[in-house]
């Protein structure tokens, strides 16, 4: 019954488990095998990541996102494929954004920042952070540092000339103008997220805040990694594998 043990262990890691939305935003979606020896982790549940799991002899997939229902038919196709391969699946979305070892704090740690404040509340979960560098850096240095961490190009817009000290961050889908406004209100020098639209850029320019946008997938993967490593610390005999995901969101040159 190792799967149920792991499920309970994960639950005990989260202080938000009493939130009424916790079980909507996390949990086992498919119970394949209960005998867990190899765990594979990534951001997204897709047919491609399931295939990566099969290739790596994974027993349990851990992802940040469940298959999105608005990618019509994907959830049903993923469930069918997981059952065919006898692979179990667990996801953790907003609670992982909120927690101290989750998506935002994991990227903050890699950037060398110190968390100042939890922000961007949704359904009782705080999905963003305000953080600061001990010493100021240039905007260009920050953008390059993020590219090196994510292993992909980022998009950046410099709308003020000062050096960077204070950062607003929402890993993943923080591309709404309301998200940027929280960073503006807290006097951040730059706002970092994983998605944008035209209005994101226009508002950042109007408000005079620098903007850096990586990808939804790779700004969030380190939180899933942190969760997987906590399981590894508890269950020493379990192997952990990072599953390959394509950089679909990366800016590409035109043909």
From TrEMBL:
Keywords: Metal-binding
Gene3D superfamilies linked: NIF3 (NGG1p interacting factor 3)-like
One Pfam match: DUF34_NIF3
Record-annotated membrane-spanning stretches: none
Family: Belongs to the GTP cyclohydrolase I type 2/NIF3 family.
Protein name, per record: GTP cyclohydrolase 1 type 2 homolog
Organism listed in the record: Tissierella carlieri
């Amino acid at each position: 019954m190792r799967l149920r043990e792991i499920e309970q262990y994960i639950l005990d890691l989260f202080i938000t488990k009493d939130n009424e939305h916790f079980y909507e935003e996390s949990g086992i979606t498919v119970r394949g095998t209960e005998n867990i020896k190899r765990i594979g982790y990534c951001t997204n549940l897709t047919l491609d990541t399931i295939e990566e799991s099969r290739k790596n002899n994974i027993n349990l997939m851990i992802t940040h996102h469940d298959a999105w229902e608005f990618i019509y038919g994907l959830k049903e196709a993923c469930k069918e494929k997981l059952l065919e391969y006898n692979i179990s699946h667990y996801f953790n979305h907003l609670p992982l954004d909120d927690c101290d070892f989750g998506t935002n704090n994991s990227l903050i740690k890699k950037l060398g920042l110190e968390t100042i404040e939890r922000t961007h509340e949704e359904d009782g979960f705080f999905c963003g952070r305000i953080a600061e560098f001990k010493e100021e850096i240039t905007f260009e240095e920050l953008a390059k540092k993020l590219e090196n961490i994510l292993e992909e190009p980022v998009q950046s817009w410099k709308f003020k000339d000062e050096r960077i000290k204070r950062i607003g961050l929402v890993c993943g889908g923080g591309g709404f103008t309301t998200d940027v406004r929280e960073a503006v209100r807290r006097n951040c020098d730059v706002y970092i997220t994983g998605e944008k639209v035209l209005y994101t850029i226009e508002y950042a320019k109007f408000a005079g805040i620098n903007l850096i946008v990586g990808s939804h997938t790779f700004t969030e993967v380190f939180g899933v990694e942190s969760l997987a490593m906590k399981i590894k610390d508890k269950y020493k005999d379990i192997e952990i594998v990072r599953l390959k995901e394509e950089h679909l969101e990366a800016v590409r040159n035109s043909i």
